[in-house]
């Protein structure tokens, strides 16, 4: 390894001109050195400027931004001094970028082979006669099975993970010496993400190229990167080896970030980081983190700390780095509020079956039954009052579908939903009475989508209050303020529009709207997955407090096993719309597990450089469940034979209510899994 | 109340800020000035016209522009300038009433079909397509021949015909909104279909409807003038641009001023409306696929 850096950003500041004519910096004095063969992780929350750094390394600035000072070089070329032509020859060739959702940026009308050939024609000096062989070689390099067949496919015929692999193969076509990855696995399923990360690790080792990996996910960073740079409000606040940053961070923000991540090994609620980062240019003279820092002193308000070696030798931007180790960095939040035992079920689902497809007109006229397997089938769950049930599974597992059906938005094809011991609930929301409507509330994944952008916060909160309680005038106004205060927002938010709130504040409003109805059952559909980790921790804490105060029952859907663990009393694991395993959360997360749960748990990445994911199944995405037998038959690493293909596995229930649906006897399963771990 | 004290997020505040945005764009400033000029002219023209529009003068037929008759006289010796400045009154009145009606009913029907979706929506849209595929002048003439001319026929006729394309626009805009979670949230809460249309959908479709309304207005003006040109609109001697062009076109080779006055007046109004609609679309952030009719 030579010491000449591949990418070097020196004292780089980037900013834009604000409305009042002031220059507002987005990045301030960024120093970043990437040496050949090195993998660097850029971590930070949304708005911290990490993507801007990656793009600046390519000599690219988003519209309106300009360089205020400093330089960005790639192998000695000053990226902001090169002509357009010179930049074109570098970009995509020796310096490649894999943006977020790059799998979806493949040209939909071109076969994979043709797209890769095009990349080779643009960025490699090979003889065109060698292209077909090189295409196969590249596809093999990104571990795609049967490259010959893949070249003839169109992008939509590949799964998300396979598309991402093709995008990586395209980036590799120019034999890059540095690869910039901007959130390359965000939006992929956990198992797919784990496979892609292993591939990136191997590629970096095989080709000796440098990688800059931009992500908010410390787990992914821990797996791929040697060195980690933590960014906050457009500044580098800490830099060091992955081990140092993740196990002994010396900056208060890095510690807070680690504490706000829910961890699989830890059943506590994560600790929220209060406040929010300053807007560009709003940092003032002092430290940008001062308003959220527990160590802040008068010095921090008046003088901006420099990036200087802290305790342990790693550069850190903090006046009090020597005292940072007094701050907690693991989740020491509360235990989630638990349900009282032995209460009556508030909700029970009986043999629920949900179909998206409707039989065609011809089939209906001929009176034919739909023989295709249902999207969701055979769901029988009962939830006790005050309990939190976690529903986990990968995308397409039907977890959100089940919530929509409980809420009445998607009528089930068969089965019944009983609420609070009453007669079965009417199937669709239009047939339900006002009392049922009020008592079951739904919170959606993305507040940008679930809050009407044209309504002020007051209008949003008034809707359920008018509808269910007939409030008006000052009573209505007072109640809105009261509800906002309960979610830790104040009355001054009433006249704002959702677009004037941060992501976390918007989700609080969505939570407030649901709780305005005084519900007994709240359905949470991935409510934290669109949020930054520190904000996620705050929303989880809020949900937990509301539950403790009001005894609300939750059905909590998430793809994140650690988040579910932190909040749930019981957990149900879904695959392809069928239940695999259900039980008290401590039991589900311990052995024995259903083979699918085992695969999921193995793929979870912890923010710890020492944990290695256990990848036991392929990351193939199945589009429809098998017609008979076990739903997991095609991917199961512990498949025992033809029985799994033909017979629906039986429920095997233990005394503590932990039930697993598998043909393998529980004792055998436990023994096998114990031996493997 | 001063401008600064209006809360930014209130409806009035938003309208003002959109208006400011429109005025800050060159096309918006020019367009709005032209439209406002025509509107003011339509109101005050009877009081400032130098001659009565009916007064004929057999001795002054088809004279050229001079200090007395700024735009010359027509074939009956009437003052072209006086007739031109008053020639838009009827057109602006009829289209000014018919446009809001067209946008309102077309918008309501479009939002309704966009919300219910499914087969009913598909079938209804095919009817709309079939209707739109017939040439408008044909449909219009059939109605006018049946019911006769005059404002009381023209306003509902124009409002009906020009509401139908609005259905498509409103439905398309609704389709973008209806799949969003806040509509699902309203359904899950148990809000009635009417409330969902009015509270959740309409505010998000309103921008598209406003731009569409401005566009429809300019199309409608053109249609009204075309009908007058063909003799189905305003009856003489009431001055009207379409009618004036029809009357003067026979003498165009040696007395072009008779055509020039109304043509300039009509074009400036339509261009003004189109420029305003363009700026409005940009201010509201709406892509406008449909181009201006002139």
Please describe what this structure looks like.
The complex is a heterodimer of chains A (677) and B (294). Chain A is an alpha/beta fold. Chain A folds into 4 domains: 7-94 and 174-326, 3-Layer(aba) Sandwich (Rossmann fold); 112-173, no CATH class; 345-456 and 486-575, P-loop containing nucleotide triphosphate hydrolases (Rossmann fold, 3-Layer(aba) Sandwich), CATH 3.40.50.300; 591-676, no CATH class. In chain A, a hairpin with a 2-residue loop joins strand 4 (66-74) and strand 5 (77-78). In chain A, helix 6 packs parallel to helix 7 (190-207). Chain A is globular, with a radius of gyration of 27 Å. Chain B has a single domain (26-56, 64-284), classed as MetI-like fold. Chain B has helices at 11-24, 26-48, 80-86, 89-116, 118-133, 136-147, 151-178, 181-189, 193-229, 241-248, 257-284. Chain B is elongated. Chain A binds chain B through residues 404, 407-409, 429, 432, 434, 437-438, 441-442, 444-446, 449-456, 463-464, 467, 495-497, 500, 513, 517, and chain B through 7, 9, 180-182, 184-191, 199-200, 203-204.
Number of domains of chain A: 4
The number of helices of chain B is 11
User: Which strand order spans the largest sheet of chain A, edge to edge or round the barrel?
Assistant: 17-18-19-15-20-21-23-22
The amount of beta strand of chain A, in percent, is 15-25%
Separation of the first and last Cα atoms of chain A: 36 Å
Given the structure, what is the number of helices of chain A?
24
The first-level CATH class name of chain B: Mainly Alpha
Note the beta-strand portion of chain B.
under 5%
């Amino acid at each position: 390894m030579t010491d000449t850096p591949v990418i070097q950003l020196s004292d780089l500041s980037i900013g834009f001109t604000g409305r009042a004519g002031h220059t507002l910096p987005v990045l301030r004095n960024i120093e970043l050195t990437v040496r050949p063969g090195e993998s660097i992780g850029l971590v930070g929350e949304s708005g911290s400027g990490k993507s801007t750094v990656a793009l600046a390394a390519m000599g690219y600035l988003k519209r309106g931004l300009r360089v205020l000072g400093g330089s960005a070089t790639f192998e000695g070329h000053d990226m902001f001094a090169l002509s357009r032509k010179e930049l074109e020859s570098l970009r995509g060739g020796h310096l490649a970028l894999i943006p977020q959702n790059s799998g979806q940026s493949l040209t939909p009308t071109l076969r994979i082979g043709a797209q890769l050939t095009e990349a080779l024609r643009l960025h490699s000096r090979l003889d065109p006669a060698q292209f077909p062989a090189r295409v196969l070689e590249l596809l093999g390099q990104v571990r795609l099975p049967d490259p010959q067949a893949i070249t003839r496919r169109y992008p939509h015929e590949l799964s998300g993970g396979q598309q991402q692999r093709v995008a990586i193969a395209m980036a590799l076509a120019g034999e890059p010496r540095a690869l910039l990855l901007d959130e390359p696995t965000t939006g992929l399923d956990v198992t797919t993400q784990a496979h892609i990360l292993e591939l990136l690790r191997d590629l970096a080792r095989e080709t000796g190229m440098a990688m800059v990996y931009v992500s908010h996910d410390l787990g992914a960073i821990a797996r791929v990167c040697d060195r980690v740079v933590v960014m906050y409000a457009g500044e580098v606040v800490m830099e060091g080896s992955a081990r140092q940053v993740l196990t002994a961070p010396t900056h208060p923000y890095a510690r807070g970030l680690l504490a706000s991540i829910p961890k699989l090994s830890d059943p506590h609620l994560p600790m929220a980081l209060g406040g929010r980062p300053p807007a560009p240019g709003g940092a003032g003279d002092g430290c940008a983190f001062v308003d959220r820092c527990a160590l802040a002193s008068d010095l921090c308000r008046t003088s901006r700390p420099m990036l200087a070696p802290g305790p342990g030798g790693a550069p850190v931007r903090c006046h009090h780095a020597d005292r940072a180790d007094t701050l907690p960095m693991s989740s020491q939040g509360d235990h989630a509020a638990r349900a009282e035992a032995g209460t009556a079920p508030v909700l029970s689902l009986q043999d629920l079956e949900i179909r998206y497809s409707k039989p065609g007109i011809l089939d209906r006229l001929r009176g034919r039954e739909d023989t295709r397997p249902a999207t969701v089938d055979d769901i029988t769950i009962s939830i006790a009052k005050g309990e939190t049930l976690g529903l986990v599974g990968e995308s397409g597992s039907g977890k959100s579908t089940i919530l929509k059906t409980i809420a009445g938005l998607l009528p089930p094809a068969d089965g019944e939903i009983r609420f609070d011991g009453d007669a079965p609930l009417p199937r669709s929301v239009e047939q339900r009475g006002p009392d049922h409507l009020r008592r079951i509330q739904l919170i959606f994944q993305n507040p940008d989508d679930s809050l009407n952008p044209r309504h002020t916060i007051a209008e949003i909160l008034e809707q359920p209050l008018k509808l269910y309680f007939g409030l008006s005038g000052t009573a209505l106004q007072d109640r809105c303020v009261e509800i906002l205060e309960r979610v830790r927002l104040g009355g001054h938010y009433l006249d704002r529009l959702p677009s004037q709130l941060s992501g976390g504040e918007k989700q609080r409003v969505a939570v407030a709207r649901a709780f305005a109805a005084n519900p007994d059952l709240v359905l949470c559909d991935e409510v934290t997955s669109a949020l930054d980790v520190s904000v996620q921790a705050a929303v989880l804490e809020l949900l937990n407090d509301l539950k403790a105060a009001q005894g609300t029952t939750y059905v909590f859907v998430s793809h994140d096993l650690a988040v579910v663990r932190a909040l749930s009393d019981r957990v149900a694991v879904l695959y392809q719309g069928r239940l695999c395993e259900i039980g008290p959360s401590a039991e589900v997360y311990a052995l024995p597990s259903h083979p699918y749960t085992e695969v999921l748990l193995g793929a979870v990445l912890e923010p710890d450089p020492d944990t290695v994911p256990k990848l036991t199944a392929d990351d193939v995405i199945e589009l429809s469940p098998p017609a008979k037998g076990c739903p997991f038959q095609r991917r199961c690493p512990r498949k025992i034979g033809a029985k799994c293909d033909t017979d629906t596995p039986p429920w095997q229930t233990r005394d503590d209510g932990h039930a697993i649906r598998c043909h393998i006897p529980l004792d055998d399963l436990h023994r096998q899994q114990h031996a493997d771990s | 109340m001063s401008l600064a004290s209006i809360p930014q997020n209130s409806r009035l505040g938003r309208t003002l800020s959109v208006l400011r945005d429109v005025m800050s764009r060159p096309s918006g400033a020019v367009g709005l000035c032209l439209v406002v000029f025509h509107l003011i002219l339509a109101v005050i023209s009877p009081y400032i016209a130098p001659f009565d529009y009916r007064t004929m003068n057999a001795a002054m037929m088809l004279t050229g522009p001079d200090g007395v008759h700024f735009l010359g006289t027509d074939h009956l010796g009437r003052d072209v300038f006086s007739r031109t400045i008053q020639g838009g009154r009827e057109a602006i009145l009829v289209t000014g009433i018919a446009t809001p009606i067209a946008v309102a009913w077309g918008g309501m029907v479009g939002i309704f079909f966009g919300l219910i979706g499914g087969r009913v929506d598909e079938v209804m849209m095919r009817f709309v397509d079939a209707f739109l595929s017939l040439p408008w002048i044909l449909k219009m003439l059939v109605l006018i021949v049946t019911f006769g001319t005059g404002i009381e026929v023209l306003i509902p006729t124009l409002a009906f015909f020009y509401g139908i394309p609005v259905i498509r626009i409103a439905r398309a805009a609704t389709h973008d909104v209806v799949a969003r979670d806040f509509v699902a949230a309203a359904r899950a809460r148990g809000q009635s279909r009417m409330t969902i249309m009015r509270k959740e959908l309409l505010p998000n479709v309103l921008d598209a409807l406003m731009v569409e309304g401005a566009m429809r207005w300019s199309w409608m003006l053109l249609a009204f003038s075309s009908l007058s040109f063909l003799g189905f609109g305003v009856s003489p001697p009431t001055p009207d641009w379409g009618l004036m062009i029809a009357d003067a076109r026979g003498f165009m080779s040696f007395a072009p001023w008779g055509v020039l006055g109304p043509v300039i007046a009509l074009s400036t109004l339509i261009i003004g409306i189109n420029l305003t609609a363009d700026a409005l679309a940009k201010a509201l952030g709406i892509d406008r696929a449909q181009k201006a009719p002139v």
